[in-house]
Amino acid sequence: xxxxxxxxxxxxxxxxxxxxxxxxxxxxxxxxxxxxxxxxxxxxxxxxxxxxxxxxxxxxxxxxxxxxxxxxxxxxxxxxxxxxxxxxxxxxxxxxxxxxxxxxxxxxxxxxxxxxxxxxxxxxxxxxxxxxxxxxxxxxxxxxxxxxxxxxxxxxxxxxxxxxxxxxxxxxxxxxxxxxxxxxxxxxxxxxxxxxxxxxxxxxxxxxxxxxxxxxxxxxxxxxxxxxxxxxxxxxxxxxxxxxxxxxxxxxxxxxxxxxxxxxxxxxxx
Length: 270
What we know:
270 residues; alpha+beta; five-stranded mixed β-sheet; two-stranded antiparallel sheet; 5 helices
């Protein structure tokens, strides 16, 4: 039977250990500094690209519109070609605008114009405008606001509408005819909880942690023919967080998704 090897204490002094830890901390600090700088360069590149592309793209859009107006009625081939060009240019405009907005959101340079609004009135106005929009035909829209909701929220209405619009449009894109889309709100402590829930196709469990990442796309089966930028939820997350709130997602495949926004009640700390 072989003799069991005895444990030998590493021959390192306390001073050497402290030096190793200090060196490791310095390496981590330097790596973090490089990552931060790379992120700043990326954001600057995104911002410059989106800004520089806007003018020539606007010129192309105007040119296509001019050609359509001056086109002969019986020239169907050219008319169809211009219609295709117009759709593609509109998609590019959406992508560029989203890129520009995302750089502002992620660099915390998005200028908000906050005002304190009645939460119930704000959500009702948003809901009834969508209910009258033909885009939502074939979906059942529901409004479920708690009767005791008498809270104010301090928001930039335009930006918060952008967030809710994104959630509603996604609910349509990832649901079938007859699906239910519900906008709800209630108060929990010092927080207003706003949720958009749908009975659509849902999100795979493995995808949920990444849905707010920029340009992250879930399985191709969920996005047939989708020409969106893939930046919408990343933008929504940034806008909500700049309002001092949080946004999260719960979903089950085949059952639907629920996106929840939590915002502090005006004048209170969540």
